[in-house]
Protein backbone atom coordinates (compact mmCIF):
# COMPACT_ATOMS: atom_id res chain seq x y z
CA UNK A 1 0.00 0.00 0.00
CA UNK A 2 1.32 3.46 -0.92
CA UNK A 3 2.30 5.67 1.97
CA UNK A 4 0.11 8.78 2.36
CA UNK A 5 1.69 12.08 1.32
CA UNK A 6 1.24 15.32 3.26
CA UNK A 7 2.25 18.85 2.29
CA UNK A 8 5.01 20.46 4.35
CA UNK A 9 6.00 23.68 2.54
CA UNK A 10 8.11 25.02 5.39
CA UNK A 11 10.14 21.92 6.21
CA UNK A 12 13.93 22.34 6.20
CA UNK A 13 15.99 20.13 3.91
CA UNK A 14 17.96 18.76 6.87
CA UNK A 15 15.03 18.47 9.29
CA UNK A 16 15.15 15.61 11.80
CA UNK A 17 11.56 16.19 12.95
CA UNK A 18 8.52 18.12 11.82
CA UNK A 19 5.13 19.18 13.19
CA UNK A 20 2.22 19.32 10.76
CA UNK A 21 -0.13 22.30 10.86
CA UNK A 22 -3.57 21.90 12.40
CA UNK A 23 -5.47 21.23 9.15
CA UNK A 24 -2.99 18.61 7.98
CA UNK A 25 -2.82 17.04 11.43
CA UNK A 26 -6.60 16.73 11.60
CA UNK A 27 -6.74 15.10 8.18
CA UNK A 28 -3.91 12.70 9.01
CA UNK A 29 -5.06 11.64 12.48
CA UNK A 30 -8.81 12.20 12.61
CA UNK A 31 -9.83 11.51 9.01
CA UNK A 32 -7.26 8.93 7.86
CA UNK A 33 -6.88 7.57 11.41
CA UNK A 34 -3.11 7.28 11.42
CA UNK A 35 -1.37 6.75 14.73
CA UNK A 36 2.07 6.55 16.32
CA UNK A 37 4.43 4.30 14.40
CA UNK A 38 2.71 4.76 11.03
CA UNK A 39 4.99 5.66 8.11
CA UNK A 40 4.12 8.69 5.99
CA UNK A 41 5.70 10.87 3.31
CA UNK A 42 6.05 14.65 3.32
CA UNK A 43 6.37 16.85 0.23
CA UNK A 44 7.70 20.38 0.24
CA UNK A 45 6.41 21.04 -3.30
CA UNK A 46 9.96 21.59 -4.57
CA UNK A 47 10.88 18.00 -5.26
CA UNK A 48 12.01 16.84 -1.83
CA UNK A 49 10.46 13.62 -0.51
CA UNK A 50 10.73 13.11 3.25
CA UNK A 51 10.21 9.65 4.72
CA UNK A 52 8.81 9.95 8.23
CA UNK A 53 7.27 8.07 11.16
CA UNK A 54 4.51 9.51 13.34
CA UNK A 55 5.74 10.09 16.91
CA UNK A 56 2.91 12.25 18.27
CA UNK A 57 -0.55 11.44 16.89
CA UNK A 58 -2.07 14.69 18.12
CA UNK A 59 -4.89 15.78 15.81
CA UNK A 60 -3.91 19.45 16.14
CA UNK A 61 -0.13 19.18 15.93
CA UNK A 62 0.93 15.81 14.60
CA UNK A 63 4.66 15.27 15.08
CA UNK A 64 6.86 13.05 12.92
CA UNK A 65 10.46 11.88 12.93
CA UNK A 66 12.27 12.19 9.59
CA UNK A 67 14.03 8.96 8.65
CA UNK A 68 15.28 9.86 5.16
CA UNK A 69 15.07 12.55 2.50
CA UNK A 70 15.66 12.43 -1.24
CA UNK A 71 15.13 14.86 -4.09
CA UNK A 72 13.24 13.73 -7.17
CA UNK A 73 14.18 14.96 -10.65
CA UNK A 74 12.29 18.06 -11.76
CA UNK A 75 9.64 17.50 -14.44
CA UNK A 76 11.23 17.83 -17.85
CA UNK A 77 10.53 19.28 -20.26
CA UNK A 78 8.66 22.21 -18.70
CA UNK A 79 5.04 22.46 -19.78
CA UNK A 80 3.44 25.88 -19.30
CA UNK A 81 -0.03 27.10 -20.16
CA UNK A 82 -1.15 30.72 -20.32
CA UNK A 83 -4.94 30.67 -20.16
CA UNK A 84 -7.63 33.32 -19.85
CA UNK A 85 -9.64 32.72 -16.71
CA UNK A 86 -13.42 32.39 -17.08
CA UNK A 87 -16.05 34.36 -15.19
CA UNK A 88 -17.37 31.07 -13.80
CA UNK A 89 -14.74 30.27 -11.17
CA UNK A 90 -15.70 26.60 -10.84
CA UNK A 91 -14.76 25.90 -14.45
CA UNK A 92 -11.23 27.23 -14.15
CA UNK A 93 -10.80 25.56 -10.75
CA UNK A 94 -11.73 22.25 -12.37
CA UNK A 95 -9.13 22.87 -15.06
CA UNK A 96 -6.40 23.70 -12.55
CA UNK A 97 -7.08 20.53 -10.57
CA UNK A 98 -6.96 18.25 -13.61
CA UNK A 99 -3.99 19.98 -15.23
CA UNK A 100 -2.01 19.63 -12.00
CA UNK A 101 -2.85 15.93 -11.78
CA UNK A 102 -1.68 15.41 -15.37
CA UNK A 103 1.60 17.22 -14.77
CA UNK A 104 1.47 20.87 -15.84
CA UNK A 105 4.54 22.82 -14.72
CA UNK A 106 3.25 26.39 -14.73
CA UNK A 107 -0.15 28.11 -15.03
CA UNK A 108 -0.23 31.73 -16.13
CA UNK A 109 -3.56 33.60 -15.89
CA UNK A 110 -3.63 35.42 -19.23
CA UNK A 111 -5.28 38.83 -19.52
CA UNK A 112 -6.28 39.38 -23.14
CA UNK A 113 -8.67 41.89 -24.67
CA UNK A 114 -11.73 39.65 -24.17
CA UNK A 115 -10.77 38.10 -20.83
CA UNK A 116 -13.81 38.09 -18.51
CA UNK A 117 -11.97 37.65 -15.20
CA UNK A 118 -8.69 39.40 -14.42
CA UNK A 119 -8.52 38.97 -10.63
CA UNK A 120 -7.89 35.60 -9.05
CA UNK A 121 -8.29 34.10 -5.59
CA UNK A 122 -4.70 32.98 -5.34
CA UNK A 123 -4.96 31.24 -1.95
CA UNK A 124 -7.96 29.13 -2.96
CA UNK A 125 -6.36 28.19 -6.28
CA UNK A 126 -3.09 27.34 -4.55
CA UNK A 127 -4.94 24.98 -2.20
CA UNK A 128 -6.50 23.27 -5.21
CA UNK A 129 -3.08 22.75 -6.75
CA UNK A 130 -1.68 21.37 -3.49
CA UNK A 131 -4.55 18.91 -3.18
CA UNK A 132 -4.10 17.79 -6.79
CA UNK A 133 -0.35 17.35 -6.31
CA UNK A 134 -0.89 15.10 -3.29
CA UNK A 135 -3.76 13.19 -4.90
CA UNK A 136 -1.63 12.36 -7.94
CA UNK A 137 1.40 11.50 -5.74
CA UNK A 138 3.69 14.15 -7.13
CA UNK A 139 6.35 16.13 -5.26
CA UNK A 140 6.57 19.26 -7.42
CA UNK A 141 3.82 21.83 -6.97
CA UNK A 142 2.84 23.58 -10.21
CA UNK A 143 3.60 27.28 -10.21
CA UNK A 144 0.64 29.65 -10.33
CA UNK A 145 1.95 32.99 -11.55
CA UNK A 146 0.44 36.43 -11.27
CA UNK A 147 -1.94 37.43 -14.10
CA UNK A 148 -0.01 38.71 -17.12
CA UNK A 149 -1.17 40.99 -19.94
CA UNK A 150 -1.16 39.27 -23.30
CA UNK A 151 1.23 41.67 -25.02
CA UNK A 152 3.77 41.46 -22.20
CA UNK A 153 3.77 37.68 -22.14
CA UNK A 154 4.21 37.20 -25.89
CA UNK A 155 6.94 39.84 -25.95
CA UNK A 156 9.00 38.40 -23.10
CA UNK A 157 8.51 34.62 -23.21
CA UNK A 158 11.60 32.71 -24.31
CA UNK A 159 10.44 29.08 -24.26
CA UNK A 160 11.93 27.12 -27.19
CA UNK A 161 8.43 26.07 -28.30
CA UNK A 162 5.76 28.78 -28.25
CA UNK A 163 2.25 27.95 -29.41
CA UNK A 164 -1.05 29.78 -29.70
CA UNK A 165 -4.36 27.96 -30.12
CA UNK A 166 -7.04 30.10 -31.77
CA UNK A 167 -10.24 29.71 -33.75
CA UNK A 168 -9.76 32.10 -36.67
CA UNK A 169 -9.43 30.58 -40.15
CA UNK A 170 -5.98 30.34 -41.60
CA UNK A 171 -3.09 27.97 -41.90
CA UNK A 172 -2.79 26.00 -38.66
CA UNK A 173 -1.49 22.54 -37.90
CA UNK A 174 -3.15 20.17 -35.48
CA UNK A 175 -1.42 20.30 -32.11
CA UNK A 176 -0.98 16.53 -32.03
CA UNK A 177 1.00 16.67 -35.32
CA UNK A 178 2.86 19.92 -34.76
CA UNK A 179 4.02 19.56 -31.15
CA UNK A 180 7.70 18.69 -30.73
CA UNK A 181 8.21 16.50 -27.62
CA UNK A 182 11.13 17.16 -25.34
CA UNK A 183 11.09 20.95 -25.61
CA UNK A 184 10.13 23.44 -22.91
CA UNK A 185 6.79 24.74 -24.14
CA UNK A 186 4.23 27.44 -23.52
CA UNK A 187 0.78 27.40 -25.12
CA UNK A 188 -1.71 30.27 -25.14
CA UNK A 189 -5.42 29.53 -24.64
CA UNK A 190 -7.83 32.41 -25.14
CA UNK A 191 -11.15 33.44 -23.58
CA UNK A 192 -14.59 32.31 -24.74
CA UNK A 193 -14.60 34.97 -27.46
CA UNK A 194 -11.12 33.92 -28.64
CA UNK A 195 -8.13 36.18 -29.12
CA UNK A 196 -8.58 39.25 -31.29
CA UNK A 197 -7.00 39.24 -34.78
CA UNK A 198 -4.54 41.87 -33.54
CA UNK A 199 -3.47 39.69 -30.61
CA UNK A 200 -3.00 36.68 -32.86
CA UNK A 201 -0.88 38.67 -35.28
CA UNK A 202 1.25 40.04 -32.44
CA UNK A 203 1.88 36.52 -31.18
CA UNK A 204 2.86 35.34 -34.64
CA UNK A 205 5.20 38.31 -35.04
CA UNK A 206 6.86 37.33 -31.74
CA UNK A 207 7.54 33.79 -32.91
CA UNK A 208 4.46 31.92 -31.64
CA UNK A 209 3.19 29.16 -33.92
CA UNK A 210 -0.56 28.73 -34.55
CA UNK A 211 -2.11 25.35 -33.72
CA UNK A 212 -5.57 23.83 -33.90
CA UNK A 213 -7.23 21.66 -31.24
CA UNK A 214 -9.68 20.11 -33.68
CA UNK A 215 -12.73 21.09 -35.68
CA UNK A 216 -15.06 21.53 -32.68
CA UNK A 217 -15.20 24.89 -30.92
CA UNK A 218 -14.14 24.25 -27.32
CA UNK A 219 -14.77 26.09 -24.08
CA UNK A 220 -11.71 27.69 -22.54
CA UNK A 221 -11.17 25.05 -19.85
CA UNK A 222 -11.81 22.23 -22.35
CA UNK A 223 -9.23 23.69 -24.72
CA UNK A 224 -6.81 23.87 -21.83
CA UNK A 225 -7.40 20.24 -20.90
CA UNK A 226 -7.00 19.02 -24.49
CA UNK A 227 -3.74 20.94 -24.81
CA UNK A 228 -2.23 19.69 -21.56
CA UNK A 229 -3.29 16.09 -22.19
CA UNK A 230 -1.99 15.94 -25.76
CA UNK A 231 1.36 17.54 -24.96
CA UNK A 232 1.91 15.45 -21.85
CA UNK A 233 1.14 12.18 -23.64
CA UNK A 234 3.43 13.05 -26.55
CA UNK A 235 6.23 13.85 -24.10
CA UNK A 236 5.68 10.50 -22.35
CA UNK A 237 5.68 8.57 -25.64
CA UNK A 238 8.89 10.28 -26.73
CA UNK A 239 10.68 9.42 -23.49
CA UNK A 240 9.85 5.71 -23.57
TrEMBL record:
GO molecular-function terms, A-Z: rRNA (uridine-N3-)-methyltransferase activity
Organism name: Chitinophaga eiseniae
UniProt entry keywords in alphabetical sequence: Cytoplasm, Methyltransferase, rRNA processing, S-adenosyl-L-methionine, Transferase
Residue span, Ribosomal RNA small subunit methyltransferase E methyltransferase domain: 78-231
Domain Ribosomal RNA small subunit methyltransferase E PUA-like: 22-66
E.C. numbers: 2.1.1.193
Function noted in UniProt: Specifically methylates the N3 position of the uracil ring of uridine 1498 (m3U1498) in 16S rRNA. Acts on the fully assembled 30S ribosomal subunit.
Record's protein name: Ribosomal RNA small subunit methyltransferase E
Any one GO cellular component localisation term in the record: cytoplasm
One GO-annotated biological process of the protein: rRNA base methylation
Amino acid sequence: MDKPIFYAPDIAADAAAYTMNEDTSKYCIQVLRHENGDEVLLADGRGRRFHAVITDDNRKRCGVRITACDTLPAPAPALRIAISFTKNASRIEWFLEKAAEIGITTIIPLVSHRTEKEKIKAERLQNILVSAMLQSQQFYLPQLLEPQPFDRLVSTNTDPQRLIAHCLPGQKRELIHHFQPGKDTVILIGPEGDFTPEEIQLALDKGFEPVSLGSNRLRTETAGMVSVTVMNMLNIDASE
